[in-house]
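Notebook p. 47: complex prediction with magnesium ion.
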Amino acid sequence: MAQLLLRGELLRYGVSAVLFDKDGTLCRSEPMLLALAQARVFHCRQLLQERHPELAHEVLADLGPRLEATYGVEENGIHPAGTTAVASREHNLISTATALAQLGLGWPEALELAAEVFERSDRLLARDGTPAPRATPGLHELIHRLGGAGVACAVISNDERQGIEAFLGSENLRSHFQVLRSAGDAPRKPHPDAVIAVCGELGVAPGGCALIGDANSDLVMAERAGVAVVLGYSAGWRRRPPLASRFRQLSHWQELEVVSA
Ligand SMILES: [Mg+2]
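Predicted complex, structure tokens below:
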């Protein structure tokens, strides 16, 4: 059990565990996610052209901006609350198929085509060596402070388990996280039962936990699950995430002090 201080202010409840969101909280994933979204737009246009040469040029020209809006692609970045930033791969696939269905494709074909687009994009990114997500500044120090105070750490993310493992492995942080919850676990974020399940695995009640995330959906989920300390992290994206003002927020891990209780 430890007390957390935010910018010197003692937070009311002691905690035995901290649950972290991954993208935009533990790591800056924006360059990778932007490259991924752009690859999906490119392959979607290319594949549609291959499969449907009869489609008018204007239809194809319209698809790019339509998909960019769908994915939350902005000038030089990603909308921190958009589908690419927040949603699972499966939900992104469905939103891609929806954009294709709007062009007149039947749903089975739209889904199949979206799946092919995602596979081609994954292959392209693997080949091109897109920059991997990097830990947010000061994260390593915080994780060590928490470990030193006997506080357990967990990841609760809508990334695939492989993506979570790859990030933690690349930062040499895997052994500091006792529980990982990914998009492959049911229920997934933002269902409050996802938090309850992580707490169960950690052997800590939600009332003895903190949760830190960069999306309102993370913070509302934590509130509903009865998590004691709910914090918004705002420095994981180029553009500050639109977090509700009722949540306490921090923009650098240095702002969070850990005191053994
Ligand atoms: Mg996030």
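Notes: Residues 66 and 99 are 7 Å apart (CA to CA). The mean pLDDT is 94.
Next step: compare against the earlier run before touching the bench.
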